[in-house]
Amino acid sequence: MKTAISASGLHKSFGRTHALDGLDLEVEAGEVHGFLGPNGAGKSTTIRVLLGLLRADAGAVQLLGKDPWHDAVDLHRHIAYVPGDVTLWRNLSGGEVIDLYGRLRGGLDTARRAELLDRFELDPTKKGRTYSKGNRQKVALVAAFSSELELLILDEPTSGLDPLMEEVFRECVAEERDRGRTVLLSSHILSEVEALCDRVSIIRKGKRVESGSLAQLRYLTRTSVTAELAEPVNGLTDLPGVHNVDIRDRRVKLQVDTDKLDGVLRQLTQSGVRSLISTPPTLEELFLRHYQDDVTRTEEGAVAR
Amino acid sequence: MTAVADTRVSPRTRGSAKDLAGTGTLLRLALRRDRIMMPVWVVCLGLTASSTTGRLKSAYDTPKARADLVVDMNGNGSTRALFGAAFDDSLGALTVWRVGGFLTVFAAIMSLLIVIRHTREEEETGRQEALSACMVGRRAGLTSALLAVGIANAAVTVLIAGSLAGQGGTGALALGLSVGLTGMAFGGLAAVAAQLTENARLARGLTSAAVGIAFVLRMAGDAAEDGSQGSGHLLVWLSPLGWAEYARPFADERWWPLLLIAVLAAASTALAYSLVGRRDVGASFYATRPGARAAGAGLKGVYGLGWRLHRGALLGWSAGFVFTGAIFGAISNGADEFLGDSDQTREIIQRMGGAQGLTDAFLASMVGILGTTLTVYTASAVLRLRSEETDQRAEPLLANAVSRLRWGGSHLVFAYLGPVVVLAVGGLALGVGYGVAADDMGGIPRAVGAALAQAPALWVVTSAAVFLVGVVPKYTAAAWAVVGWVVTLSWLGPALKMPQSVMDTSPFTHLPKLPGDDVTAAPFLWSLLISVVLTAGGLVGLRRRDIGG
């Protein structure tokens, strides 16, 4: 498969803060790639490097086989970007901004533009400041989705959208994927990422800490198991990969590393299973695990000092 | 769908105590937010006068020297245009002559900035909405802004009156009041402008234009007639800044012109109050009209966008220069009648406008005033590039197939060529104004040429701003220091007898005094060379640096 975005060992400092600290990122052509991380992890900085707005201090980066810093203009003919906080010019209407962006990217599909205005219920005659936050996002989204482009870079694009519009956004991303386009979606909304993305990268403090398909990542984490048994059970705590065992009479709650699930089930069935609930890890747990690690580590660091 | 008429619309309140709820809290908020800006303004305005008295005392240390100075200055139209007439030769009166006119202008600017900042800007950013949702009355925002500006102007008045009391208590009070009341009058006009438009930038522009018109009227009237003899010129009487001048502090004070300023302050404030109760929070009397559904052919690329962003300022400055140029031109006919013939006057004319024919000298100094004033326009056009960046509009734009140089060019074309257009129409108006008054249209090409000759010096300021934006974007505000320096040198330098080495730091000093002076290529070539080098440096920086706030 072709690689749409590849970055390795990116470093970027602003004064004393190291926004990027050896970041790696690979996005395959034709996939929807989730880009996750807590606030201040370096998501937007990475995206600005990918767009050639910032120059990385060190590291290599390529988009669609080109260098985003040196070939910015050529590259941008194939890229649409939606920032998380869209600011418009006060004396330009939304329709004018959409067309301006289209013209600057080398054309836009007017039929698609009309259709998207309709689906997003956006009035294109309003001017800059009279749009609400969500409507300003819609202006940028309509502009991005109505252009014929290879790669969409979306930086928390749905902030301020209501749930109905969020649904329209998901449909649009799915349509883009079906047309073979590549999407890099930076987001805080994990349900959105879970619904849309083929693969995700999680970053923290300017470094990638996890990357892979959702199935692969789930495999790396714990499944929650709640069971009601016919008889009391023994020896559960001794099994490898089992955590947080809570046995109350015949009711058992525990967490288990997903690759060790087999052994736990075998043990449980020996005691006769009356009911069983097994919850695969959500992306939220995955995310929180990395985030909490971070919190604990910082606390430890503070104590050590 | 059928519309259902709703007759239960609540009537607009006519004003009650509830309208003012929360004023005290908002006032404290305003003073807290302005805790640096306001004291700096107040101290600068309040202490400039007394420090000027000290400088005058050492520069003109005998009564004879001061009396000569008054005769010379009142005999010169262009210095009268800048400073107004000198009404007496006491140190107090000379202080008023030297700085009084500038103090009233800057009190007006301070006041309009404070009022707009706490009224329309609060509404435009949406902060007022959050405040209005609390226990805050309909008129509390306006009231707190006016109280804040009232406190600032009262402090200025007290500082001026107190620090100059040694020169005579009555005169000191008259000067203090003329400055403070002028501040309040333009604060009131700013409050009205804030009701008329939803755009804080436009409200500031409208009120600044009012200050500019008042200043030009006073200049024109003072240039045409020596106000210390007789009842004064009609144009001066049309300007609130002229009323402050004609109050004659330290020179047999006239109090009733101050009453005129107070009436203007009260009337504009009352108008603002009657307007504020009749509109919605965030709305205005001239609401934003809906825009086009789709972009027209003009909005093709970044240059089309640049035109949309810069056309307002370009048209506004052009209109202002047509007005100013026509008035300057009209009064310059007969300049020789009101120019004196003492050695000192000759020397100052020579410094400001060259030694040629007196009308030419007068025209040349007016052209110089027009040219240096335009540094404000060209600097703000360059800085628009930076504010597009800090307001996060540049990033999505540059994420399209737009090179940085193209994007920069779409703003800089207005920064470089905008002033040329404004100079051309200003020069044309100057020539036509002179031509109508003197019944001689032959001077128009010379006037236009003289105005256009200012462009290379302006470009030095433009390119200094470009260099800052490209190379040290965090310090772009330093462009205003460059503008302030150039304007101060050109306007005050000759009368303050600045050393030539200091005067030489301004590119405008090196230009030939046109019309009339001999034209040599060297100063133009040097200006162009410096502009090209600074611009190139700035553009290289813009290409290489990171983009973003």
Summarize this structure as a short list of keywords or feature phrases:
heterodimer, A: 305 residues, alpha/beta, six-stranded mixed sheet, four-stranded antiparallel sheet, 10 helices, 36% helix, disordered C terminus, B: 549 residues, mainly alpha, disordered N terminus, ABC transporter ATP-binding protein (chain A)
Topology readout:
The complex is a heterodimer of chains A (305) and B (549).
Chain A: E1 3-14, E2 17-28, E3 32-36, H1 43-50, E4 58-63, H2 72-76, E5 79-82, H3 94-105, H4 110-119, H5 133-145, E6 151-155, H6 163-178, E7 182-186, H7 190-196, E8 199-204, E9 207-213, H8 214-219, E10 222-229, E11 242-248, E12 251-257, H9 261-270, E13 273-279, H10 283-304
Helix pairs in contact in A: 3-5
Chain B: H1 23-33, H2 37-59, H3 63-74, H4 77-83, H5 91-118, H6 120-124, H7 127-132, H8 140-163, H9 169-196, H10 200-224, H11 234-237, H12 240-246, H13 256-276, H14 302-332, H15 335-338, H16 343-353, H17 358-390, H18 394-398, H19 404-438, H20 444-452, H21 455-471, H22 478-492, H23 500-503, H24 507-510, H25 521-544
Helix pairs in contact in B: 1-8, 2-5, 2-8, 4-10, 5-8, 5-9, 5-10, 8-9, 9-10, 9-12, 9-13, 10-14, 12-13, 14-17, 14-19, 16-17, 17-19, 17-21, 17-22, 19-20, 19-21, 21-22, 21-25
